[in-house]
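Quick start: load a record and inspect it. Here is ABC transporter related protein:
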Amino acid sequence: MSRLLEAEDLHLSFRGVKALAGVSFTVSEGDLFAVIGPNGAGKTSLLNVLSGLYKPSRGKVVFLGEELVGQSPQDRVRKGLGRTFQNLELFRGMTVLDNVKLGAELAVGAYTDLLPHAPTEWRIRRWAEEVLDYLHLSPYRHAPAGALPYGLQKRVEVARALAGRPKLLLLDEPMAGLSLEEKQDLARFLLDARREWGVTLLLVEHDLKAVLELSTCVLVMSYGEVLYQGAPSGVREDPRVAEAYLGRSA
Ligand SMILES: Nc1ncnc2c1ncn2[C@@H]1O[C@H](COP(=O)(O)OP(=O)(O)OP(=O)(O)O)[C@@H](O)[C@H]1O
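Running the structure step on this input writes:
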């Protein structure tokens, strides 16, 4: 599998607190790459560095062979690096469809097969409708996003990000606050999107059971450092992980 993203020796500090202390790893095309670790381990800081919200004091982020440090979050999205947030970042007063159309606008060159001769606005709408349908959100498309139950809002956020046709989608705790059934639904949608649209997924997640079941590769962080990168089957056996994250008895 070819390399999609490489993080090389990333460092980031907040007034003396080392959020990232030399983080390196590789995400390959097709991965479902999970980042786990205790509270304060640096997971969200890492996503913020990858998506361009924070600039690392040292290190490189290489995406599809191109160095990204210094490029804006918007440029990164246009290059295929999508993102969802830990706290929902939807436009609550806008309809579900309009939220997803915002995502689709970013990728208008990427779905040339849909209505190739139609005006751009039609093609954006058509693609947004397709993504909504795919995620079983069509019945809610005219509702204000902020009026939906939390689980559906999370799904709308994923739909908006997927509408941007990312090559790599960064998801910050997509399962947090969801019921078991909602988690299972979301996991299915993500796996389907990965298969159908070739989206590689990198997710920060606290639900260890979900991580170990779904992922192809796990990165375990603690105090801004990488403790483990490898197959999910090796996570529980790794002594450093057991000590730092799972508790010695795990
Ligand atoms: N904007 C900020 N200002 C100051 N300190 C910050 C900021 N963001 C993160 N930190 C600090 O950096 C460290 C890493 O935080 P980060 O939020 O990245 O961890 P995390 O693994 O995502 O934690 P959680 O699982 O609780 O979300 C913590 O010590 C945190 O207090």
